[in-house]
């Protein structure tokens, strides 16, 4: 009985903590309304920063190898050089999200959410 009350107490604590939403969070994201355009722009900015960080880290590894500080394995060098080229190409092709791109991302999110809902109904 004591174990049951502990389990119920933990369950209630988890449920109540997951349903608490601050006013700022509710304004920013409402599942019924979807994400705001600015959320998509912020996500794109975050992804661009991650891409720039990956490029910088890859360049540092290659520079360290060329200077002799940190030698790479024989198969690592061509892999990193190829990765650097691909990441740079991706960054060069990057553009600021326009409304059409945001609408496509919103549609993908809605389709993804619908797939999750249908999978949840299957179980």
Name some characteristics of this structure.
123 residues, mainly alpha, two-stranded antiparallel sheet, extended
Descriptive account of the structure:
This protein is mainly alpha-helical. The chain has helices at 2-19, 23-28, 37-67, 76-92, 99-122, and strands at 29-30, 34-35. The two termini are 30 Å apart. The mean pLDDT is 82.
Instruction: Characterize the quaternary organization of these chains.
Output: single chain
Q: How many helices does DSSP assign?
A: 5
Calculate Rg over CA atoms: 23 Å
Mean pLDDT: 82
Helix content: over 70%
List the uncertain runs: none
Give me the strand/helix succession. HHEEHHH
Span between termini = 30 Å
Overall strand count: 2
Q: What form results from the Cα inertia axes? A: extended
Computed structural class: mainly alpha
Largest sheet: 2 strands, antiparallel
Q: Kindly report the spatial arrangement of strands forming the biggest sheet.
A: 1-2
Classify the beta-strand content into a percent band: under 5%
Task: Summarize the topology.
Elements: H1 2-19, H2 23-28, E1 29-30, E2 34-35, H3 37-67, H4 76-92, H5 99-122
Antiparallel strand pairs: 1-2
Helix pairs in contact: 3-4
């Amino acid at each position: 009985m004591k174990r049951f009350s502990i389990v119920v107490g933990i369950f209630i604590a988890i449920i109540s903590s997951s349903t608490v939403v601050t006013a700022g969070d509710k304004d920013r994201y409402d599942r019924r309304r979807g994400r705001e355009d600015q959320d998509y722009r912020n996500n794109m900015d975050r992804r661009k920063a991650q891409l720039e960080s990956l490029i910088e880290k890859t360049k540092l590894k290659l520079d360290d190898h060329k200077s002799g500080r940190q030698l790479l394995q024989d198969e690592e060098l061509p892999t990193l050089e190829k990765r650097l080229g691909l990441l740079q190409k991706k960054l060069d092709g990057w553009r600021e999200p326009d409304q059409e791109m945001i609408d496509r991302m919103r549609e993908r999110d809605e389709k993804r959410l619908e797939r999750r809902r249908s999978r949840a109904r299957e179980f």
